[in-house]
């Protein structure tokens, strides 16, 4: 195999993974297909590859609509590459058949002009440890990045995203569902303890980098990530916003109840980091 590094960014969802993808995509020593979130491993594990595959033509159509209205040369070039990459992934991966060779080539391991290639799919955070071990074994040098965000903020952003056009009322209804024991997928994505323990087992010491969302959009954090990947440091575009969820206010009562529901996660991160980040404790409330 090549001497390149494969990086998996496995989340957490709504914790800045799209910003990091865009930042590393522009790095001269990295190569990533423009198709963020390949859903290769979770499709094979969960047997729902058809769901993700069936979405790809719609993604192409949406990009083509924006492309036809766009007059900016650089953006049009990216959109052309994006449509071609999505179509190629649709043609290569049927959603059910495992072919790590095709997957490695699509990520860019066949290229000689990139030190780092990889796959940014936050959904991999929910995979069991044996599947994370399969991910780690796909290449000689595989590493993982996991971004932690204040648990209630991450949950609330996720619920606002899922609420979509329903706005604040729909997002609050989803929060109430979570507090009543529902929102199973979102709950799994909120389990930092399980994800970090699995990643630690699968990738081992020195091959897992954990960053805080609240500190991510900075030159210091990006320098840490570049050092972890063994690539040159670049300047962070700290003012760039990617996939921002709709605005909606979470009241103190629901925040306090959500904190209580996620208490195990706070306790785990406090042990994992040797204390809770100040950015988190400043937001904590009591009912």
Automatic annotation (TrEMBL):
InterPro entries tied to this protein: NST/OST (IPR037359)
Organism whose genome encodes this protein: Maritimibacter dapengensis
Record-given protein name: Sulfotransferase
Entry annotated with the keyword Transferase: yes
Annotated keywords: Transferase
């Amino acid at each position: 195999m090549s001497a390149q590094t494969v990086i998996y960014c496995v989340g957490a969802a709504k914790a800045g993974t799209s910003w990091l993808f865009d930042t590393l995509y522009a790095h001269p020593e990295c190569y990533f297909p423009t198709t963020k979130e390949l859903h290769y491993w979770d499709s094979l594990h969960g047997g729902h590859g058809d769901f993700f595959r069936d979405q790809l033509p719609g993604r192409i159509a949406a990009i083509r609509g924006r492309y036809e209205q766009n007059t900016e040369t650089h953006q049009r070039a990216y959109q052309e590459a994006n449509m071609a990459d999505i179509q190629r992934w649709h043609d290569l991966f049927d959603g059910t058949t495992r072919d790590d060779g095709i997957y490695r080539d699509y990520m860019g391991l066949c290229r000689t002009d990139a030190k780092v290639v990889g796959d940014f799919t936050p959904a991999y955070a929910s995979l069991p440890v044996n599947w994370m071990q399969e991910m780690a074994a796909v290449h000689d040098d595989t590493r993982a990045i996991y971004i932690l965000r204040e648990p209630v903020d991450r949950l609330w952003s996720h619920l606002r995203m899922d609420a979509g056009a329903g706005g604040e009322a729909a997002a609050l209804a989803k929060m109430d569902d979570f507090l009543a024991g529902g929102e199973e997928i979102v709950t799994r994505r909120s389990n930092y303890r399980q994800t970090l323990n699995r990643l630690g087992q699968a990738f081992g010491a020195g091959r897992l980098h954990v960053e805080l969302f609240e500190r991510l959009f900075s030159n210091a954090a990006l320098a840490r990530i570049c050092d972890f990947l063994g690539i040159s440091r670049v300047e962070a575009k700290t003012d760039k916003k990617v996939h921002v969820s709709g605005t909606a206010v979470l009241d103190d009562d629901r925040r306090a109840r959500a904190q209580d529901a996620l208490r195990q996660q706070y306790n785990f991160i406090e042990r994992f980091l040797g204390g809770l980040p100040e950015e988190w404790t400043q937001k904590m409330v009591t009912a």
